[in-house]
Here is the input.
Amino acid sequence: MYEYIKGEIAYISTEYIVLDHQGIGYQLFMPNPFVMSQKQGQSAQIFIYQHVREDQISLFGFPSMEEKLLFMKLLNVSGIGPKGALAILASGAPEQVIQAIEDENETFLTKFPGVGKKTARQMILDLKGKLQDVVPDYFPNLFADPDRNTFTDKKELEEALLALKALGYSEREVKKLEPTLRKETLTTDEYIKKGLQLMLKLS
Here is the structure.
């Protein structure tokens, strides 16, 4: 099994890149090949996963080990194959996918191509609490204490929420925004501005 390949990015298409390593061009299917566009013609290290079928051998490439690990975890879910797992990573950042699984957010998961309610539920059943080796760079405290909220308390956010209430927004409206705002790390003023922008979208 290959871990990664270092080489020059020789070609980028909508589905894959070609990585030239010692004169051999490796076709690597990636979630978002165009994220590598600025590195075309330059050397890069791509983490890869080799998928073998009776009639085909394919290489899937990822810019980080975390994306590769999440891809492999998704392959363990019944109903998700390599193309489906790639589509999920292409449509959402790894941290968003992980958070949705941990929060049992089926509505968010069903937004991904090819993921219906049954598959979303299966993802949660199979992966919730089992993504510790993927999580560290994204949510280092996600599994530290199961009795705590998945996000740490933020003084700046609490101040911003109070300010939004002072501006006339109801407790219910502010509570609706809180989960989204907790995903950000901002100053009090930035939280308030972000909250006001979200309020306008909801109105």
